[in-house]
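Lab manual, section 2.4: Encoding a predicted structure.

Procedure: take the sequence of the chain (176 residues), apply the prediction step described in section 2.3, and record the output as structure tokens. A sample record is shown.
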Amino acid sequence: MLIPMEIIGRGLQMERTQLRLGLVIALVITVNSVMLVSSITNGGQYVIAGLAFVSMFLVEYLLAKQSLNTSKKNVSVLHQLGAKDRSITISVLPRFLLFGFVGILGGYILGVIAIIILQPISIMYGLQALLSQGFIAHSVTIGIAGIGGIVIGSYLGITTSIQTVHRDGISYSIRQ
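Recorded output:
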């Protein structure tokens, strides 16, 4: 028996505040990373990209895990109705990814604006520095690291939560 994705998505209690929190945290991490990349030498820029990945991974993992842990009863009922783990993962993952990507994009925009405003020499010099290939390459590296952290963290958070429901053997009556 197949359960439509819409029913699965509505059956899980994902609060908008949790998704907004993920968006804001992704935005702040990206702003800080972009600003740091503009002022650090070549070697340190890869460390910043690594920190962006780890930060995004941890945030998304914990948010996804916490969101699904509040829905253990609903996940169990969906399993009893025939929903597969893959269907649940596919219906939840895009929400986290969308809010994370919006956060990264907003972080880029705010980070570049902050660099232009805070550039001590002049706005013209700040714009020239932003258009250098090194800055653009390292900004892309930060973006890839952030997206990777969001995708992997969200996926692992969702799958470990679903496995916890299976392992704990939580069984609820559909009538509850």
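Check your result against the sample. The two ends are 21 Å apart (CA to CA).
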